[in-house]
Amino acid sequence: MDDSAFVRVVEEAALPGAACIIVDRDGTRYARAFGHADAIRGTPMALDTPCQIASMTKALVSVAAMQLVEQGKLSLDGPVGDVLPDLADAQVLEGFDESGAPQLRPAARPVTLRHLLTHTAGLGYFFIHPEILRYFAYVGMPEPGSLASLRMPLMFDPGDKWEYSVSTDYTGLAIEAASGKQLGDYFAENIFAPLGMTDTGFRPELADHAATVHRRKEGGGFEAAPMILGGGEYQSGGGGLTSTAPDYARFLQAILRRGELDGNRILSEASIAELSRNQIGDIRAGYMGSAMPELAAPFDNFPDQHTGWSLAFLINPERGPNGRSPGSLAWAGIFNSYYWIDPSEGVAGVFVSQMAPFGDPGALEAFGALERLAYS
To answer: What architecture (CATH level 2) is domain 4-375?
Structure first.
């Protein structure tokens, strides 16, 4: 595979470091690491350098939730408040009065697991939604990683819109409630061990050889931007995992293979199909605004497409500009890590880097070039 065009784009992107893998249903087509895990100290980036995968955690949570749906321990469409009391009597934020006090009303319908998995529950993220930031400013800003940071009103009635949110953190808590196990322990037994993902887990402290999160400096170069998403009061299903490109590539292969890898099945073919189809009808998914551009700028992966959302992934209804087929599945992590899964062509790719803010143009160009390489 001639990767010269890809390498040129990565070099022009001037990233601190990246690990990139392309897989198909039978194995690895391409794998290469670039640059540094720590650009300040000059530590080389390796394919298996541990990185914070942030919201790439979410797809694993969706698989875990569907395992429990298969077992009858969770319901997709029953009130999720039955297992998560914080969501039992959800309130919708209608605005703020002259004093700044939030104005709330009861939600029109119960929140369900399907709402959580599709980001249509009405919840938000403080760094994306200014109304959530304003709510917390009034009631008191919670500690990052605390359960209190999840306790927010809904921005709309469940099922009415798509907004990226803490829904997957709540799904992680539902998995714990239904399984009786801490989320990391459930993952280790039911996903990581069967798939051979030996370097993935929740880690409140990063290993010495883990990659550092970077920021670009004005005039060139990088500075360290130390952020750890894996600590806190609970294990974050929304973004707490540390992993490696090879480990995550095995997960992508399992999705390509309809829930099985190396003879180990983690989900039925029927559940994979449910996990992969658009679940939100005519609602458009994928656009994220920003209340804190130092963490994430406004983002829209396919601004010219009416993108959908499955129980785990963004879905492009038309062919992507870099080659992926209609109906492909994708998402990302806030430190500029990205992946896609193309079931039609039987190919998937993962691009892992560690840099803030999200949506770095160089990282997006490099990821696009990786995708072009896969279809070349």
So the answer is: 3-Layer(aba) Sandwich (3.40)
Specify the 3-state DSSP secondary structure of 28. strand
Is there a cis peptide before residue 44, judged by omega within 30 degrees of 0?
A: no
44-62 residue pLDDT tens: 999 999 999 999 999 999 9
Question: H or E stretch including 202?
Answer: strand 201-202
Active site residue 55: yes
Q: How many CA atoms lie within 13 A of 108 on its CB side?
A: 9
The single residue of 135, 164, 170, 248 carrying the catalytic annotation is 164
Q: State both tokens at 100.
A: 């700044």
Rounded (5°) CA angle 367-368-370 = 65
CB distance 134 to 94 below 8 Å: no
Q: What are the tokens at 160? A: 């009415």
Edge-first strand listing for the sheet containing 214-216: 222-224, 214-216, 355-356
pTM of full prediction above 0.85: yes
What is the Cα 370 distance to its own chain's centre?
19
Is residue 164 annotated as part of the catalytic site, yes or no? yes
SS3 sequence, 228-297? CCCCCCCCCCCCCEEECHHHHHHHHHHHHCCCEECCEECCCHHHHHHHHCCCCCCCCCCCECCCCCCCEC
Q: Which one is catalytic: 58, 243, 337, 339?
A: 58
